[in-house]
């Protein structure tokens, strides 16, 4: 103890077995974290240390930030309600939404149906972590984790936009952490593709308007929402390219879809078929019966029927007792299939350009045949160097390790495979796929 009665922790390094940690200091992920409670809210922050004294200093700094933030609140800002915050967010989203996009409609509907009834009349500054947990616990009874993540994600976006607009003070933003909003990517990650054999089985069974959509996505990787916006004047029959305008694309950049021979033939057949039924159609994907531009609702029935016929479906019993058919193959898997079967000589820059992606990690994650990827990796790593040897000096090892890291970061191999292959390279043996 110091003379003033304050404990002196000096350079004391804590261990997980310590039971006398100061109040608000706790272990998490092999390091100390700090916690401050104020006005009914809880604030947590990693101290990035195992030293108790340093952790206490971080805790004191956090408290000072909170107090300073409370004093700097603009008069009147603290009284804004969640409904006002969400309406401001929706209005901005409406202005920024892409042409013909249903993003605003879906977001608006979700917020009005789920978020507003629970949060609407609450003051934004009074929404604590406990309130978020109450919402989660209530919704988990009838909704999936992914759906709850999406709902709370809209609320978080509204708060962050409110901070930028000066409507909410940063210290008043609720604690959206992974204990409430869990990783949607991990829980919702798809690892399936539609193989070439399945593709050949499905195509003849699909209705004409669904068949051409499926063929185009499987062979070009275009997103269904982007495909629905394509018009016939965007098709260059001579160059066998389909242009996707920037205003139609998810990433707001123009790109081109290559039509291989079988796609070209299918497109010509579909054009002739559609012209007989809907001669005034401007959209490529116009429903042949209604004459309206197609939506995702127009392919579901045909897709389910084809998958059921081939045995790629199963019955699921919902929480309300209703039984429905769920397909084992998702229509969107066709886009992932295009990435998986992309020739290896296609570099990532060209591949991302065609698929409309910007991140290497996303581009890599869409390749979901780990065995095929590992075999290609094996071939690349054992390719002879300039001296004609496959297991060269340390320079060759370094190149192999860099290649391994690149494949791991692109998620073409998992962590276990990466560690095993790395170990094998370091000991100088030939790579062995297990």
Order of strands across the main sheet: 1-2-3
> H/E series, N to C?
EEEHHHHHHHHHEEEHHEEHHHHHH
CATH topology of the largest domain: hpI Integrase, Chain A
Domains, number: 4
Q: What's the average pLDDT? A: 78
Enumerate the spans where pLDDT stays under 50 for 5 or more consecutive residues: 1-6, 72-76, 183-188, 386-394, 429-434
CATH class of the largest domain: Mainly Alpha
What fraction of residues sit in β-strands?
5-15%
Which superfamily, in CATH terms, is the homologous superfamily of the largest domain? Intergrase catalytic core
| General form | globular
Quick one: how many beta strands? 8
What is the alpha-carbon Rg in Å? 28 Å
N→C terminal distance: 58 Å
The secondary-structure class comes to: mainly alpha
Largest sheet: 3 strands, antiparallel
CATH architecture heading of the largest domain: Orthogonal Bundle
The DSSP helix count reads 17
